[in-house]
Every structure is written in structure tokens, then in C-alpha cells.
Design goal:
Order of helices and strands: HHHHHEEHHHHEEEHEHHHEEHH
Radius of gyration: 23 Å
Distance between the termini: 79 Å
Strand order of the largest sheet: 1-2
Number of helices: 15
Strand content: 5-15%
Number of strands: 8
Helix content: over 70%
Largest sheet: 2 strands, antiparallel
Structural class: mainly alpha
């Protein structure tokens, strides 16, 4: 294995582990803000207890997410120093903005949520819940801006062997920023909403904390229904954007070896790059052309339309992309079931559905991971699309043995962190929301 490949493995391990936490932050901060809004409008003490419970979990997720995110920024100056030299003038700006404008906003007001319930006015506490929600999403926006620029670079010029910013707004709002941000936020909302719904389902199945579980379900499930249906449309729009700006990536997603009119939409298959064929292929003729261009007879470029040295791998993006889509349909089916049960007012009494919510908690994380793998591996061989190759971005002085050692250390440390995180999370869930305060004795 080469140092470049090991550096890619290390970064994938680090960012994949880190990416367990930001989506949860998106969804949990949304639920906390909605529940706190219910509390301040109605004085509902059940909502207050639910908020306090979820804030403790959000604090845990924020701490671990912050710790695992810091290592990513250091890696740009170690394993990827050539990349940092080439794009530092552009890539560094959104990372700095994320820290200055978003991270500190989110962390300060999360501190108010964790420690300030009895120390600040109710409306200040509600405002803090909104600012945590806003700060989390603002942080995500800056990261998406940085990553989207790598996918569809704009607003720059290469001068003296370095990428120099020429138009901030063109770079920030490049061809993929908006659709990727909205798609990512929706995925995060699904992740957090399903987590809250799963925990609430667990409490109802166990006959514990029924009041808090009930209000968490009443807030989380309707939003989950809306976002799950919306995500199907958002995912389609993102795929259309990929077809227009990164056509070889879409060809890899669909294992489309030869460009063609009436291009089929792949449903299943096992791509074999060496033979440029797909085993056990199942597809719907013309549907890919219609989805991308609104015309079943439109031409869709295939991998053969691009030079061999510019084609991405096929197997991993194809499999990851299709698993992500399959999980998206699982969420739609779950949302449709929830919609029916909500209309019938049978959610709390339908034990199999509560079990389904609990079992489904890890699935959004899998969808997020596979979606990220498809997007990043499908961009290869470029680290900055059609500007800088991944092989040219790695550090030239870091040896294979050094990178291998750090991969092993990272894996061991992250495994330990994950075990500790799960133990604390399970303990928080077992403890549950605080019991309601006893009524004062009658005089």
C-alpha cells in the first residue's frame, strides 16, 4: 500500500467517525428548539423535562464531535500538505469562518442550555435554544461550502502554482453548495428526529417516562414525515446537479460504461471495472435519461466518454449510492406508516411500530456514511475536481510506515472513544428525564 492510499484511509476513518455526530446535532438541536418553543408558549413542564434530557445528550454529542473534528483540520497540514499549499488561500477561509462565526456561537449558547436553566430568564433560554440550532447549521454551511468547492470549484484562478480567490460569492455559492447543504441538513434532521423518536419508542415500550416520550413523539414524528418525503425530492435534485457538473461521477453511480440515449436507471448489479460490465444487472430503460434531462431519449455520458485516467472507481460508489437510496426509501416507508398512525392516533398503542422506530435509529447514520463515500470516492482521482489530483495533494515527506502507524493509532483511539461515548449515552437514556417535582402539600 502506498502512503497516499494509507493517507486516504486515515482521513476516511477520521472523517467517517466524526460524521456520526454533526447530523445528530442538526436533528437534536431542531427538536430541542421546537420543544422549548412549546414550553415557553404553554408553560408545559413535560416539555421542559424533555428539553433538559435532550440537552444532556446534545452536550455529550457536541463534546465528542468537537474532539473528533479537530484532528481533521490538523491532517491538512500533515498528510495533505501539498493540498494545503495549493488551496489554503481558499479552503482556509470557510474553516476559519466556521470556527469564528459558528462554533463559538453554538458552544457558548449550548453552555447556557446545559447550565443556565435556573440562571437565565425563560425567553433567554428559548433564544439560546434557537442560537444553538442556528449555530449548528451555520457551522455545517461553512463546512459544506469548503467541501462543495472541492467538488465544483469556482471563483478562483491559479497563480504561481496556487489557487487564488477571485470571487468570494462565486466560490462560496458554487454549482453544488446550495443543493448539497439542503440535502445534508435534511439528512441530519432525519438522523436526529429518528433518534428522538426511537428513544421515545423505547420508553413507551418499557412503560417509563410516558409523558416525556409522548411529547417527544408528537414533536419529532410529524417533522420526520415531512422531511423524509422532502428528502426524496432533494436527493433527486442533487443527482441532477451531479449529472450536470460531474458527469463521470454519475456514470460511476449508475455503472454506465457506455454513454447512450434511453439510459437505464440501475436498480441492482455488481460492477466489474476490469471487464467494464455489471453482473446481475437490473435496470429500467430510459429512466435515468428522463430523471436527469426530463426526456427518456436524452443522451447520458458513460465512463467511456472520459479518459481512463480521469474515471472514478465504480464498485464502491455504485454500491454506496444504491444503499443510500434504498435506506431513503426505508425512511419514506416509515414516514408513510407514521402518517397513517398519526391520523388514526394509534402511534402509542402500536408496539411493532415503536419497535421499528427503535431499530431504525442507526439507519440514518448508515445512509449518511454511504452517501459521503459515494460523493468522495466518486470524485476521484481528483481532490479538487479537474484542478488537483489526489495523488498530487499528499505530503511528500510522510512515509508509508508513518501513515500506517497513525492509522492503527487512530483506529484504536476512536474505538475507545466510541465505546466510552456509547456507555455514557446508554447511561443517560437509562436514567431518562428527571422525575416531575412533587406537588406541594395542602395547607
Amino acid at each position: 500500500m502506498t502512503a497516499v492510499l494509507l493517507a486516504r484511509v486515515q482521513f476516511a476513518l477520521a472523517v467517517g467517525f466524526h460524521f456520526l455526530f454533526p447530523p445528530l446535532t442538526f436533528g437534536l438541536s431542531l427538536v430541542i428548539f421546537l420543544l422549548e418553543t412549546v414550553r415557553i408558549r404553554s408553560g408545559n413542564e413535560v416539555a421542559r423535562r424533555a428539553v433538559d434530557f435532550l440537552v444532556r445528550i446534545l452536550g455529550l454529542i457536541f463534546v465528542v464531535g468537537t474532539a473528533t473534528g479537530i484532528t481533521l483540520e490538523f491532517s491538512f497540514g500533515t498528510n495533505w500538505s501539498q493540498y494545503a499549499r495549493f488551496v489554503g488561500d481558499i479552503f482556509g477561509a470557510p474553516l476559519a469562518a466556521e470556527g469564528v462565526f459558528a462554533f463559538f456561537l453554538e458552544s457558548v449558547f449550548l453552555g447556557v442550555l446545559v447550565f443556565g436553566r435556573a440562571r437565565v430568564a425563560p425567553r433567554v433560554y428559548w433564544l439560546s435554544s434557537f442560537l444553538v440550532f442556528f449555530g449548528a447549521h451555520l457551522s455545517g454551511l461553512w463546512i459544506i461550502i469548503a467541501n462543495s468547492w472541492m467538488q465544483t470549484p469556482a471563483g478562483f484562478a491559479v497563480e504561481g502554482g496556487r489557487a487564488v480567490l477571485t470571487d468570494f460569492w462565486a466560490a462560496a455559492l458554487n454549482h453544488s453548495t446550495v443543493v448539497r447543504f439542503v440535502h445534508t441538513v435534511a439528512a441530519g434532521w432525519i438522523t436526529g428526529l429518528l433518534f428522538v423518536a426511537g428513544v421515545a419508542g423505547f420508553y413507551l415500550l418499557k412503560g417509563r417516562h410516558s409523558e416525556e416520550a409522548g411529547i417527544m413523539l408528537r414533536v419529532a414524528l410529524p417533522v420526520f414525515v415531512v422531511v423524509s418525503f422532502a428528502q426524496a425530492l432533494l436527493g433527486h435534485q442533487h443527482s441532477v446537479q451531479v449529472a450536470r457538473t460531474q458527469p463521470e461521477k454519475l456514470a460511476a453511480f449508475e455503472a454506465l460504461w457506455q454513454g447512450q440515449k434511453h439510459a437505464p436507471l440501475a436498480l441492482f448489479g455488481l460492477p466489474m471495472s476490469a471487464k467494464e460490465k455489471t453482473l446481475l444487472y437490473v435496470g429500467i430503460p430510459g429512466l435515468l435519461s428522463w430523471l436527469v434531462h426530463g426526456d427518456a431519449g436524452a443522451y447520458v455520458p458513460g465512463l467511456a466518454d472520459f479518459p481512463p485516467e480521469e474515471r472514478p472507481p465504480v464498485f464502491l460508489p455504485f454500491i454506496s449510492y444504491h444503499i443510500m437510496i434504498a435506506l431513503g426509501f426505508v425512511f419514506v416507508a416509515l414516514a408513510a406508516t407514521a402518517l397513517v398512525l398519526l391520523a388514526l392516533r394509534r402511534v402509542h398503542q402500536t408496539r411493532w411500530f415503536l419497535w421499528a422506530l427503535l431499530v431504525a435509529v442507526p439507519l440514518p447514520h448508515l445512509a449518511n456514511q454511504f452517501g459521503w463515500i459515494a460523493a468522495e470516492v466518486g470524485r476521484q482521482p481528483w481532490v479538487v475536481y479537474r484542478v488537483l489530483r489526489t495523488a498530487d495533494a499528499a505530503s511528500v515527506v510522510v512515509s508509508t510506515g508513518q501513515v500506517l502507524f497513525t492509522v492503527i493509532v487512530f483506529a484504536a483511539v476512536y474505538a475507545l472513544i466510541f465505546v466510552v461515548f456509547l456507555r455514557i449515552l446508554v447511561a443517560l437514556i437509562k436514567k431518562g428525564p428527571a422525575a416531575p417535582e412533587p406537588a406541594p402539600p395542602l395547607a
